[in-house]
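Worked problem 6 (solution included).
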Amino acid sequence: MRFLSSSHIAQKNKHFILLEMEEINNTSVKEFILLSFSNLDKFQILFFTIILIMYLACIFGNLLTVILVEMLSSLHLPMYFFISVFAASEMLFVSITVPKLLVNLIVAEKYISFTVCLLQLFMYSSLGATECCLLGVMAFDRDLAINIPLRYGSIMTCNRCVKLVIIPWFFGFGMGSIPTLFIATLKFCGPNVINHFFCDLAPLQSLSCSNPFSSKLATTISAAFGCVVPFIFIMAFYFHIVYAISKIQSVEGKAKAFSTCSSHLTVTSLFYGTIIIVYIRPQTSEYDKYLALIYTVVVPFFNPFIYTLRNKEIKLALVSLLASLCTHSFLRNISTIT
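Solution. The predicted structure is:
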């Protein structure tokens, strides 16, 4: 009979303990905790109220824009069609993150399952890339309208406008799926606390217990194609637009040409300005969630006002619709009395 020495037994016990520890460390995280803005303490109810008002105003404003463009024949033009599609995407974009944020501001348990977290990440990344491409399409539309106005109607047909709108959605969801798939392959076995109000790429990668290099590389490539490339095209289109406007002789002509793209330029500046501040930086910080709040809540809140207050046709259409509704209500009351 063969006897094991004490050194052999100790070595086997050590090997067993190491295997057990490795098994524990490789245990998959089933859910995450979103800290959101827990550090605000007593101000969370006030913060909840402000965010709720801004969210409802964003949904109502964008929905009103879509309804106006759909109902009024005077707005059945390519520019307003693109504005209505962008407004619809804005409603989806804010609805991915804000409702969960509102819930986390008033509940004690701020959990989100791993599956729902990945779904939120996928939809957020996809809709973000889609909006970047839609802004590029809108810049292309304004470039055509200003540089070749005589051929604009024959080029921007209804069929072509629909195709130009469909492409960003396919492209955006394709770009959004790449970083999500790489995140799904990472192992999460340690801390599950995310210092953010939604499942963003960088916070998830920082929690991974496996090497996130491939995930970070995929994120960089996706961001380059989904965000930076459309931004380059937008800048090129606007350089072309500015050059065309500079050749117009009359001041009134220049003002009229610029007014057709001022709303889009303002929305693009706000959207890309905040995204660049958050993502084009060497490292993340604890203030990223506050900056992210700007382009997920504040900017979408202002966009409907920018479209209505800086666009004469939409303002006139809104006034016309309100006037017709008031007249219809007045006539109905008169008929009821008589």
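Discussion: The two ends are 114 Å apart (CA to CA).
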